[in-house]
Write a sequence for this structure.
């Protein structure tokens, strides 16, 4: 699977590396409230599983995901399965983030890659532990176990299963090298995404592990913007090009000018350009959504055009919610200063906001926090969840 980094690094890769680093730093500095930061990161995690499902050919809606998190599952078997997949993805992503924050994890080690697969599949019901070959034959997916059979992924035949430990060891030795230059690390995240897809270590679930692993690398290199953006949205929006770039980078070296490894150096460079362009696009997109003056305006529009059923206290509740979007947390007594209403009326406003899910609180007398239920997404964060057509995975993404 050599080269593991493009040898002829284009000027575009260097330019993109600088742009991504700058944009990521600006995004991180846009939110100062830890409560709003956590809420947005939780929302992005839901968005991540939504788009990851789409890439895998499964369609869920934000409200389906929200209901699943409340253990409210659909009666439709297919939709219920998709909700289970969403829950598992969110749980593993959260667990992974907590683990990376709490211990010095070697994210390129084979054990960690198997751990991602194991944690995902152990959270799924038994019927979802089965997959089918292209010929229609069912086989059991063993959580955390490397595949023990041959597969074809599009035009690519991944390595023989007996060779998987050796390929993963090489992957670990190169991409896990702590001596790698800072200027190479971002390109290495992109290259590692393809090379892990090329290895195709598991019988199924490789695409999800790929995206979780790339997220882990970004966290390790402190490029995830504290969870404020997601790669999966960009890959889902450009899925056809994603598949094409993955497939192109599977191909062998074209000629003597195409590197010195077994695989095409130029195609790997093209994939890395696509990957970094996708990262930059998503970081800039989230920066626009989280611009506070624009976000305040969108909150106001929600109350003006969508919350028409709130006949009483709509204007006052809007002021409270707008303040929470700015500050993240306020004491209950502050509602009186924000609205200018009597204490008894303020209690009604708070109760209305809690019932509507537009704010929440850790206890009956605790402070108020910002909340972003599914029903406000299209107003507060337009185009966050795009209704893209479902396509079956292709190339190395399966």
């Amino acid at each position: 699977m050599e080269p593991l980094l493009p040898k002829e690094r284009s000027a575009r890769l260097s330019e993109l590396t600088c742009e991504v680093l700058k944009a990521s730093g600006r995004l991180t500095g846009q939110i100062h409230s830890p409560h709003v930061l956590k809420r947005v990161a939780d929302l992005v995690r839901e968005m991540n599983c939504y788009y990851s499902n789409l890439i895998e050919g499964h369609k869920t809606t934000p409200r389906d995901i929200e209901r699943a998190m409340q253990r409210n599952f659909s009666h439709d078997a297919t939709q219920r399965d998709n909700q289970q997949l969403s829950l598992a993805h969110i749980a593993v992503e959260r667990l992974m983030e907590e683990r990376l924050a709490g211990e010095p994890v070697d994210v390129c080690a084979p054990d960690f890659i198997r751990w991602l697969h194991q944690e995902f599949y152990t959270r799924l019901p038994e019927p979802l532990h089965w997959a089918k070959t292209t010929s229609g034959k069912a086989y059991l997916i063993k959580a955390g176990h490397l595949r023990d059979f041959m597969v074809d992924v599009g035009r690519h035949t991944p390595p023989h299963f007996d060779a998987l430990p050796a390929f993963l060891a090489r992957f670990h030795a190169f991409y896990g090298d702590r001596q790698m230059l800072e200027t190479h690390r971002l390109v290495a995240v992109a290259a590692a995404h393809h090379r892990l897809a090329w290895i195709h270590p598991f019988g199924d679930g490789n695409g999800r592990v790929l995206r979780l692993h790339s997220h882990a690398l970004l966290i390790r290199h402190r490029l995830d913007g504290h969870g404020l953006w997601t790669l999966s949205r960009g890959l889902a929006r450009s899925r056809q090009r994603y598949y094409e770039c993955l497939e192109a980078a599977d191909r062998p070296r074209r000629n003597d000018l195409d590197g010195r490894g077994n695989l095409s150096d130029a195609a790997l460079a093209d994939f890395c350009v696509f990957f970094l362009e996708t990262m930059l696009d998503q970081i800039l997109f989230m920066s626009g959504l989280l611009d506070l003056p624009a976000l305040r305006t969108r909150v106001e529009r929600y109350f003006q055009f969508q919350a028409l059923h709130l006949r009483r206290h709509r204007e006052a509740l809007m002021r409270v919610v707008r303040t929470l979007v700015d500050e993240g947390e306020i004491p209950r007594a502050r509602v009186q200063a924000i609205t200018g209403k009597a204490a008894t009326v303020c209690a009604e406003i708070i109760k209305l906001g809690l019932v509507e899910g537009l704010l929440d609180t850790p206890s009956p007398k605790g402070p108020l926090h910002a909340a972003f239920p599914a029903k406000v997404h299209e107003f507060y964060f337009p185009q966050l969840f795009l209704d893209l057509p479902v396509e079956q995975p292709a190339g190395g993404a399966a």
